[in-house]
Amino acid sequence: MSWQAYTDNLIGTGKIDKAAIYSRAGDSLWAASGGLNLPSNEILEIAQGFENPSGLQSTGLHVQGQKFMLIRADDRSIYGRHEAEGVVCVRTKQTILVTHYPSGVQAGEATKIVEQLADYLIGVSY
User: Fold this and answer.
1) DSSP secondary structure, 104-126, as one string
2) Domains and CATH numbers, the chain
3) Given Cys at both, which of 18, 37, 87, 118 links 80, Cβ 3.0 to 4.6 Å?
């Protein structure tokens, strides 16, 4: 399966409206759906946030110029919320999944879908 198919499948769930897969270092975009393409400073901010979330905690999480309130940040997952929308970022062995869910979708529904894909990728050594 191509990387593009993974992001397209996330969109196909109806719970995610934008998705991208970046290299673990955040230095290259592997696939994107729904128009999600982060400026280099935003993906690097996310990549560094997995190692040290203090920057995200102090300035918030930024995705496509929108500031999201940080809900969770650890070495695997970063979650953010802005009004009724949110972002779910999950790091695997070789990738960073960055997703956005629209208003009307419960955070737990979106989180479960993205975390399951991350578990699968980790299971196949990605």
Assistant:
1) TS-HHHHHHHHHHHHHHHHHTT-
2) 3-123 (3.30.450.30)
3) 87
